[in-house]
Amino acid sequence: MDLWSDPVRPFLCFYECLFSDWESAIRIGVLDCGEEENYEICKEYGILYYPTFRYFKAFTKQFTTGENYKAGSDRELQTVRQMMIDFLQNHSQESRPPACPPLEPIQSSEIASLFDKNSPHYTAIVVESSSSYVGREVILDLIQYENIVVKRVLNSDKAFLEKLGITSIPSCYLIYPNGSHGLINILKPLRSFFSSYLKSLPGVKRKLVSQLPLPKKQNEESTEIKAWKEFDKAKLYMADLESGLHYLLRVELATHKTLEGAELKTFKDFVTVIAKLFPGHQPVVKLLETLQEWLVSLPLDKIPYDAILDLVNNKMRISGIFLTNRVRWVGCQGSRPELRGYTCALWKLFHTLTVQAAVRPKALINTGFEDNPQVVLQIMRRYIQHFFACKACAQHFEEMAKESMDAVRTLDEAVLWLWEKHNVVNDRLAGDLSEDPKFLKVQWPTPDLCPDCHDEIKGLHSWNKAQVLQFLKHHYTNENILYKYTEGQVNSNEIEVGDVKERKDKNLPKKPSGNKEDKLLDQNMLDSKSKGLDKLIANNGPVKDRGKNTVESVLHKDTKQSVSFLGIGFSNIDMSLCVVLYVASSLFLMIMYFFFRMRSKRWKVRYYRPAV
Ligand SMILES: Cc1cc2nc3c(=O)[nH]c(=O)nc-3n(C[C@H](O)[C@H](O)[C@H](O)COP(=O)(O)OP(=O)(O)OC[C@H]3O[C@@H](n4cnc5c(N)ncnc54)[C@H](O)[C@@H]3O)c2cc1C
């Protein structure tokens, strides 16, 4: 597969721009696996965490998911540069990219032969130790420049260094085109100083762009500018929670091909808790309940995620279950597409769950979690550990959890624990690159949202935790949730308002019945063949019938649950058929009535003999 010709991959400028001088030897592509449209490709390449660096050797003809060269979460630029150099050097002589000059050190004797001879170009020699990367970086920095060749030599030949007057390393020795030579004089012996000095030499200039095989740049038009949705920051938007849930189930978790062991346990526990505590639309809650029942009754210790996705996508056409398959950030929208969004919604989701557990403690009865005040926190901890794509975030969160999560004794304390730790994260990220300039990282709730939460003791700010708890219990509960911008049927007026507004913003006609994505989803729903479930059933031999039965029983059960009348269950299709039959039979009866009336009139006329 040609990594560079796929138009769906957005190439972000960060790494690309930093390494643009090297791009004829090694091209950098950045794929944002947080973008929903990249989900399929990230799944195909098995990207579970970011940053993940994958290396693809030059001239590879067969499909490969790349090499995880030196795995680890170190994203320091220095380390990334060195990894790239190691990777380039790991090519054989024949398979090395043609534009990549030799990176190995040359012998000191080769240099001596260049002295006092005319040459068409400058030759710069970086003298360094064997562990240094400076020489190789300078070589790569100058591959797009003409009239200069850069080589490196190791400091092992002391006599030679002495002869050249080199007393410290790394140093750079320059041979001019006329054969004269000497040490270059720069302020600091750093790669950037060497490179910029060499680039500024008279006659050294960039090669013409047409001479360089440049990678395709990101298609700027592909970045969709979404219409801004007005919102009230004092409210919680169901659109954020549902979009977050959609992203979590269909994108983040779906990068895992199968769930087993601790991951499966975490997923099951997460679904159990969210099915009981999610304060949302009936179709969403029903979907979560169906998923939970299915997971509980499925006697497998390994589940392909496709099977779960089939249920989430309702491939079995169970009536009354639905979760939006589109992202609509409202309170979580960012001023740029790469800001906020899912991570914001994930925080909101878990805050909502801790608050729901505190205000509805009975909701978890019969789940095995009823007596555990840390239940939501512990499940969140495991979720973040196993599934949250941001590895560094997960590490930070785990450190906080280790420190004090065990000390949480009540459901109210759990609400406050998460609030406090979220503020710690806010504090740490204030001024960070990930901060949205429109939504600064502040200690939350701010005084305008909750004046009573803030106190001052001896001139110092302090939180009134009782008020904070009260505020959180209001903010993250049903009465504070707005359904504006959601697709569900609850509060249809508000949905309409949101929808019409967005359509107006985009200058689009009023939507007749469903958008393109909805239709796609409907299409999916109509696809009664459940690929994942088939796979699951096929892969699990003897238990296949049990698995199938479970699905069928869920299906059957759900059909029964849709509308209950006199103890008999009717699905939506049953109800529609009833209406059609009712109308048809009424029409039939009316026609029969008029038919017999006409007939009896004719009879009366024919046999009527007035008495004479
Ligand atoms: C568990 C976790 C750990 C993370 N760790 C990191 C990390 O280490 N490094 C990193 O760069 N990013 C991290 N992130 C992402 C980061 O915290 C933000 O989510 C992201 O930067 C988007 O910020 P935001 O402006 O949308 O506000 P967010 O911090 O995401 O907050 C979302 C919303 O929650 C509400 N809120 C804010 N503070 C609180 C609070 N204290 N209590 C209750 N509600 C609150 C507000 O309404 C806010 O708009 C983490 C995310 C999660 C879920």
Any chance you could write out the topology, listing elements then pairs?
Blueprint: H1 13-18, H2 39-44, H3 77-89, H4 108-112, E1 122-128, H5 134-141, E2 145-146, E3 148-154, H6 158-164, E4 171-175, E5 181-183, H7 191-199, E6 205-206, E7 236-237, H8 238-252, E8 258-260, H9 261-277, H10 282-297, E9 302-304, H11 305-312, H12 342-359, H13 375-387, H14 391-404, H15 411-429, E10 454-457, E11 460-463, H16 465-475, E12 481-482, H17 492-506, H18 516-526, H19 531-539, H20 544-561, E13 563-565, E14 568-570, H21 572-607
Parallel strand pairs: 1-3, 7-12
Antiparallel strand pairs: 1-4, 2-6, 4-5, 8-9, 10-11, 13-14
Please give a structural write-up:
It is a single chain. The chain is of the alpha+beta class and about 600 residues long. The chain has 4 domains: about 15-90, no CATH class; about 110-210, Glutaredoxin (3-Layer(aba) Sandwich), CATH 3.40.30.10; about 235-495 and about 510-520, Four Helix Bundle (Hemerythrin (Met), subunit A) (Up-down Bundle); about 570-610. About 45% of the residues lie in helices and about 10% in strands. It contains 21 helices and 14 strands. The protein has helices at about 15-20, 40-45, 75-90, 110, 135-140, 160-165, 190-200, 240-250, 260-275, 280-295, 305-310, 340-360, 375-385, 390-405, 410-430, 465-475, 490-505, 515-525, 530-540, 545-560, 570-605, and strands spanning about 120-130, 145, 150-155, 170-175, 180-185, 205, 235, 260, 300-305, 455, 460-465, 480, 565, 570. The strands form 6 sheets. It has a 4-stranded mixed beta sheet, covered by helices on one side. Strands 2-6 form a two-stranded antiparallel ribbon. The chain has a two-stranded parallel sheet with strand order 7-12. β10 (about 455) and β11 form a beta hairpin. The longest helix has about 35 residues, at about 570-605. It is elongated. The termini are far apart. The model is unreliable at about 1-15, about 210-225 and about 490-565 (pLDDT under 50). The site of flavin-adenine dinucleotide (FAD) has 24 residues, from α12, α14 and α15. It holds the Pfam family Evr1_Alr. InterPro entries: ERV/ALR_sulphydryl_oxid_sf (IPR036774), ERV/ALR_sulphydryl_oxidase (IPR017905), QSOX_FAD-bd_dom (IPR040986), QSOX_FAD-bd_sf (IPR042568), QSOX_Trx1 (IPR041269), Sulfhydryl_oxidase (IPR039798), Thioredoxin-like_sf (IPR036249). This is Sulfhydryl oxidase. GO terms for molecular function: flavin-dependent sulfhydryl oxidase activity; protein disulfide isomerase activity. Catalyzes the oxidation of sulfhydryl groups in peptide and protein thiols to disulfides with the reduction of oxygen to hydrogen peroxide.
